[in-house]
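Archive entry: two folds, one per protein. Generate the first.
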Amino acid sequence: MAKKYYVVWSGRTTGIFTSWDETKRSVDKFPQAKYKSFTTEAEAKAAFAKSAAASIGTGSNTVSKGSVSKSTVASPSASQSSAKSKHNELESLDIVIYTDGGCEPNPGEAGSGLALYHKGQLTELWYGLYHPKGTNNTAELNALYQALLIAKTKLDAGHKVQIFSDSQYSIKCISEWAYGWKAKGWSRKGGEIANLDIIKLAHGVFDELKDTLKLEHVAAHVGIEGNELADRMSILAITEKNPAFVKYDKPLDLKAILSLRAG
């Protein structure tokens, strides 16, 4: 069988692969995955340097293996389309922050990341808070807390700010459940409150900002750029084992960043 080269423009990991099994892991069940096979490495490299649309158009294509759909550009669901439409409208806001936490396995090595947009343009990426024995929930809360600290400085400067987290748990912890726990002396009927220290910190900032800050849940891995970037940063924190929370200091090259390992 002739060797094939698989280009993945949009998937859990992007790039050029020579193994179908590796390609499938990247694109199978990944919303709006974009990929195509080529017979030569030169063709694959030339295609990857261009956009997916330039190589495969906007409809179905011919890559098909196993359980992966024949369509290399999966049709988005109504909810995904709605989410993307909504996020396209966020350019009207001054500051939008996406947060994410990762853990491999869970519990295991954990890290946090965020992506910050100003007037719809990506301006900053942050990552870190590595913990060798963390959990996904703690990593999500850490990321949200860091976003709240940034939001406070932006709000104080007169900006309108919205934060998006893909963790319903984190959002509910600091914006709903914390009020009841606090009223009961930071306790609950079910016993100990997990992640209480970071919940207290994040809730304190949220409570101060709640009248001027928008905090909302966003679906994970449905192709929303900010969420994907925050995800890559959380995994980068694990890869680099960085205990501090630092600004990403490399060029903000979207293709390069999105090609980093996904969580």
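Generate the second and append.
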Amino acid sequence: MDNQMRREKLYEMLENAEEPLTGVVLSKALNVTRQIIVSDVALLRSSGKKIISTARGYQLAGEAQEKGFHQEIHCQSRAMDDGELEAELNVVVDNGGIVHGLVLSHEVYGVIQVPMKLYSRRDVRQYMDRLREEKGPLIVTLTQGRHTLLVETRNDEDMDALEEGLKELGVLE
């Protein structure tokens, strides 16, 4: 299989996937290294393919937005530490929400979008573990803790419950 055919097969796998696919899964299926998958994804993106990286793997952008109730929730982190971010994300998933991402609006850098696709506490834990491994500052420090969560729930009742949980946590703006 040549490089172009492999990239076509990779994109086809993402189109047919019911959930995000990790670089390891893709590399095994296509019999290449994970680094080649990373390069192939970058090339596909540069050709206009809407592929996003999530805590659970690669997927096509916009798939989860086809159904569900979506809302932007404006938050203000008090402590701006990883513990508070983890608690915030857990409140969303504990109340039936999906965290699609986080958005920051910065005076110099403009709008910064961080795709997440967090469905459960396990996803949150994995995301936070990767963040902690990097040992860098949290991105919300750029905006003094102000950020917007992009969330989805099945219904208004779940949305109300997660907003109430975020109020109790003290992070709603």
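Annotation attached to the second fold: Strands lie at 51-54, 57-60, 69-76, 98-106, 110-118, 146-153. Residues 95 and 157 are 9 Å apart (CA to CA).
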